[in-house]
Structures
1.
Amino acid sequence: SQKIEQNSEALNIQEGKTATLTCNYTNYSPAYLQWYRQDPGRGPVFLLLIRENEKEKRKERLKVTFDTTLKQSLFHITASQPADSATYLCALDEDGNQFYFGTGTSLTVIP
Amino acid sequence: DVKVTQSSRYLVKRTGEKVFLECVQDMDHENMFWYRQDPGLGLRLIYFSYDVKMKEKGDIPEGYSVSREKKERFSLILESASTNQTSMYLCASTLAGGKDEQFFGPGTRLTVL
């Protein structure tokens, strides 16, 4: 069956360190992979999109990698800040019509 | 500023009631989606629509129906609410297909008693 797995445990890191979140998938062949941020009680907000033929994408302090052989995406936040504390979701598009979401990883950046 | 709005932030209904959740987007987007979000299960797609009057079932359509009479508005209907439909409901829209970011509404927290 199709599955998208993100870090099952909450992630706590010290301010200033790099946070690394993982997204592993099975039985998909996504053309696109997206990362979203969700704050409590709010809808997700889009952060980055990476295509299957791209290895890496950057935006300010964010970096996403996409390894279609390993079926994995890594999401990095460098120089993390307490304001980065949120839940981060990965989402895959396979057929061009809809996205399938992971369950999310809760990140807490400790001052 | 682009926006997706949902009719209610919080809603409390009784078992058996018919429930309407409304979603409006002001971006002239083609595609609209309804998800529910539950702890440990993530976002699950209920229905989506890629055009006016068109609808497609998502992963969990049972107990729900949708209506899209106008491009900007996508309604989710719970024909007879049940307690297992207590959840956070999120509406989203995209310009076209999978390469486009989804814009989400603020969500409706529905409690069915």
2.
Amino acid sequence: DAKTTQPPSMDCAEGRAANLPCNHSTISGNEYVYWYRQIHSQGPQYIIHGLKNNETNEMASLIITEDRKSSTLILPHATLRDTAVYYCIVRVLGTGANNLFFGTGTRLTVIP
Amino acid sequence: EAGVTQSPTHLIKTRGQQATLRCSPISGHTSVYWYQQALGLGLQFLLWYDEGEERNRGNFPPRFSGRQFPNYSSELNVNALELEDSALYLCASSQGRVAYNEQFFGPGTRLTVL
């Protein structure tokens, strides 16, 4: 799986959009971008994933650049409950090694 | 729908002992994954079971082992415990072996080795 680079920490004001960047410059054509988050001492929670098109669900939006070398997770209206560590993961989809490779993630702090 | 459950919540052992951790996947999920989250080391993949068989293994010594039962629940065993085995052990499940199926995580078992 390709390596990802994320800023170690970010702050965001409550009610504002949180934009979390991720670099994955060595991503291959068959690798997807996944985002998970982990709220303190809980199990990670799936947020969203995509291949090359932008994706949106009830939690967030995922914007992937045209060259697929970077992406941004957008939480449109951050709340205090969004304070967590956010992990960007790239992985090949298939029936081989299904495990997720978690990096160090970005610690997002939502400020009142 | 019940989520992934793990037991016990906390486990305290002494060095050299064995620890057994249990995981029940979401109903209908056949794949179970184990991850270790030690302080300062992040989440690391341990083991993947599907349909009762070990499908993949992370870079951990053989004293980390497990199994999956016919009802798809799983057990992680850690033998000859060492101090550095102290960590949060997370179990995740997914629907079958297809990799794009998202993994749902349980709350974890915190193992402390004294």
